[in-house]
Amino acid sequence: MTDDRARTLSYHSVLAGRLGFYGILTVGVGVLIVTGGIDLSIGSVVGLCAVLFGLLLNQQIPAWQAALLVVALGCLIGLIHGFLVTQLKLQPFLVTLCGLFIYRGLARGVTLVQLGINEDAAALKALLVGGEGEAGRNQLILLLVIALAVGLLLHFTKHGRYLFAIGANEAAAKYAGIPTERYKILAYVICSGLAALGGVLLLLDAETVNPTSGGSLLELYAITGAVLGGCSLRGGEGLVPGMILGAAVLPLLRGVSSFNKVPSDVEYAVIGMALLLGTIADELLKRGAGRRE
After folding, report:
1. Number of compact structural domains in the chain
2. Does the pLDDT of residue 46 top 70, yes or no?
3. pTM, entire model
């Protein structure tokens, strides 16, 4: 194999891994955005769960059990978010913004050292991430499996129709007899549960995680991917295939930025501009549709 071909395959492998990773987070927050919610704590949940996964591995807990515990914790976080939003009527923006700081602080509080994986986690890494020479491929396959499950839920079941109805008009959905609070909580559980899975993948892929910076700003990637994929921040709109396509833009932007030697700090400005343009496009399309009606 020539050096150029090896570099090309390596680049495609990295690209597939990034798409799988960002896509999982994007699908999670996409479900939430469909209901009209938002989650700004995704990156901190990823970081906290990656740190806790590493701590559990250091306690010699089997890797698959540790992963399940961490994902369960993520679902619990989503349950708490949903409870605060539906029962205490707090704004999702404020609830998850507070969560952003709380979970990052907890990650730093439990340890200040970088954590890594052990030999027991190697088999789980090979399953979820991929082995030598195929790293990234399995993350993409995992994304497709999750996207298929979420797509069936959203687009082919009454539960998905309920989620869309809540996002389009929550008051009307409530008058129609839909248990809106229950379904909003479900959306938060899905979002945080997939963020926790992202924490597991982060540690398995990178093999180390820093409690201070692990998962930092990943909520930006996830929300950008969902918006670029057609999810309206007003709620009530979004397709799972669109979410995947929106998530695919993010690693491409990073790849273009790296290829053109754009500084990593400026990279976030590029992503922010992409989110702004996507939001502007969504607003213009909404206004155009309103005039046609």
Report:
1. 1
2. yes
3. 0.90
